[in-house]
Amino acid sequence: MRGCLSALIKIHRWNALSCACFTKQDGNCPTESSFGPAEDIFAEADFYYNRDGLNGMCVFCDGPDHDLPQRSETDRKERGKLEDRGFRVVIIRHSKDLAAQISEHPDVFGAGISKAESY
Question: Which ranges in 1-112 belong to alpha helices (H)?
Fold first, then answer.
């Protein structure tokens, strides 16, 4: 239970931190949250961004339940279908350093967010 709570806290802090930084760093806030970008694909992005003239970008915040073999395989298949249709998929994992993951995508989260503290 502690691991799950820790992952939820990280996601909450990431969301609050990222939106606060977006307004200061010329980044963009998500267009939607808890959004299924394609009706026939079993995947719900935690955050979804519109992209001009392209299919959108899906950000998934994966907690420990996504480590289970069956869930991990389903995630891989369904997210692969999104990528095949031209959606960009970004995955934020509970088991990796949050600031490092965010800094890997400055085009999404802004340059200033890369200096975010790890929680």
Answer: 2-25, 69-84, 98-103, 106-109
Let me know if 45 is exposed, middle or buried by CB neighbors in 10 A (0-12, 13-18, 19+). Answer: buried
Residue from 80, 11, 90 nearest 56 by CA: 90
Is residue 107 predicted with pLDDT exceeding 60? yes
List all residues 6 or more positions away from 76 whose beta carbon is below 8 Å from its beta carbon: none
| Cα angle: 21, vertex 27, 32; to 5 degrees | 95
Q: What pLDDT digit, counting tens, does each position of 27-83 carry?
A: 566 676 667 788 888 888 888 888 888 898 898 988 889 999 999 999 999 999 999
Contact 88, 50 (CB under 8 A): no
